[in-house]
Amino acid sequence: MGRFVAAMLGMMMVASAIVTLNVGGTPGPPPATNGTTPHAPIRINSNTGFNASNGVDNWATGNGSIGNPWIIENWDINGTGYRYCIYVGNTTEHFTIRNCTLHDCNLGGSKWPYAGDIGITLINVTNGMLVGNRVFNNFRGIYLYSNSDWNVVTNNTVYDTRHTGIHVSTGSDNNTVSGNEIYNVTNWGLILHSSDDNVVQDNAVHDNPRVGIYMGGSANNSFLNNTAANNVQYGFHFLDSTLTTMENCTSRNNEMGVRLDNTSASTINGSLIEQNDIGIYMRDRSNENIVLDCRLNGNNRSVAIESVNNRFEGLKISGGVTGFSFANANNNTMTNSTVTNVSQGASLHDSDNTTLVNCTVSDSKFGIGMEYSSGNVIDDCRLNNITGFTSSGSSSFSHETALNVYQNDANWSHYTSWAEQLAT
After folding, report:
1. What is the DSSP secondary-structure string of 199-251?
2. Is the pLDDT of residue 234 over 50?
3. Against a cut of 0.85, is the pTM above it?
4. Is residue 29 within 8 Å of 143, Cβ to Cβ?
5. 314 burial class (0-12, 13-18, 19+ CB within 10 angstroms)?
6. Is 216 or 343 the better-scoring residue by pLDDT?
7. By Cβ atoms counted within 10 A, which residue in 115, 138, 147, 163 is the most buried?
């Protein structure tokens, strides 16, 4: 681990370009890439390809070590008539591609993945750094494929792309994707697919016609401090994955803030999820996940669960129609959470053995509703200034005396049981 940290620190020392991120709203003008010179598309297919003809600036003085990597920088590469702007394959030596403008690949054809109208392609590559590049009007922006491990993709701007902005795929592990801005990408802003142990951090992925950040078939990846805003479908979509960490992220003004499909043993912590139709949606065997200390504001449905054995703790939910919605979802737990200013605080339908402990629902039309749900536990919960509790369809619960119901209206009193409240 110490060796990896030292290597990453050494590689990051050569990164000098910084890009200002536009986190949401209307995309601003692309950042200027100063001092670029036109160059033909570059294709490197082994360590011997780091030479002058392939645009290596320090071909005479570099040696491909971590302290003296090959440098490709300050090129403006127009890919018209080509399937790539820069292609690197089958290399192990350290190199940096920085401050380049890479655009307009348009040859098309059937050469994917080896050349598929991509701004920067890395295939079976280790020890690369892609820093401060501007990539636009390609089919894919930046593509790491087939065991491309231990690379860093940082502070790039990718936009106006027909398929994917940044794509890490097919056994590409232990990469860092950080500080990038991605917008106006037709399908997916940023993808991890069949790749493990990557860190995706401090990226702004916004104003895309479909999905902001997507992960499929992957394990043990970390998403830290990312913002996904104004994407038409999903801010974050995790599919068929496990052991994911999502921490201190923001998902705003998407159809769904965070969607999990068949994703398990993962943690969402300290994130802001707001102004989406659905805040957090778990379905299709998304089991044994933990959601901690998140704020969910102004979502139509804040948390919608169709899976089992999940834990929600310390959530603060405000605004919208439903705080928590459990449907065909058993053995879930909600603790130490507050729901305010919604139509219904918590709704259970065909959901058994749900536990609600130390939760408060305030200033809402309905507090807790159950339908065809049994064996549920409600303990030390408070309903403030609401109509109260509704139950139908052979529902059952226990610890009813632990629930307190308050109404601001002077005609209401302090109830000590469901029966007393409902009989009034």
Report:
1. EEES-EEES-SSEEEEEES-BS-EEES-EEES-SSEEEEEES-BS-EEES-EE
2. yes
3. yes
4. no
5. middle
6. 216
7. 138
Question: In terms of DSSP H, where are the helices of 278-372?
Answer: none
- Concatenated DSSP letters of 88-111: EEEE-S-EEEES-EEE-----SS-
Contact 204, 178 (CB under 8 A): no
Helices and strands of the chain, counted as H and E runs: 2, 46
User: Confidence class of residue 138 from pLDDT cuts 50, 70 and 90?
Assistant: very high
Query: What's the CA gap between 198 and 175, in Å, rounded?
Result: 5
Whether residue 100 contacts residue 73, with contact meaning beta carbons closer than 8 Å, is answered with yes
95 vs 63: CA distance, rounded Å:
9
As given in the structure block, the two tokens for residue 60 are: 């005479």
Query: Is 332:305 a contact under the CB 8 Å cutoff?
Result: yes
Residue 293's pLDDT band (cuts 50, 70, 90): very high
Find the range with the poorest average confidence among 32-46, 226-240, 383-397. Answer: 383-397
Q: Burial-class residue 391 by CB neighbours within 10 Å (0-12, 13-18, 19+).
A: middle
Inter-residue contact 169 to 145 (CB < 8 Å):
yes
- Quickly count: other Cβ atoms within 10 Å of residue 91's Cβ: 24
Residue type, position 233, single letter: Q
**What 8-state DSSP symbol labels residue 310?**
-
Query: What is the mean pLDDT of the segment spanning 100-114?
Result: 81
pLDDT digits (tens, 9 = 90+) for 51-78: 999 999 999 999 999 999 999 999 999 9
The answer to whether 141 and 135 have CB atoms below 8 angstroms apart is: yes
Q: How many CA atoms within 13 Å lie on the side-chain side of 120?
A: 34
Closest by CA to 238, choosing from 205, 260, 213, is: 260
114/142: higher pLDDT: 142
Question: Can you tell me which residue has the tokens 């923001």?
Answer: 250
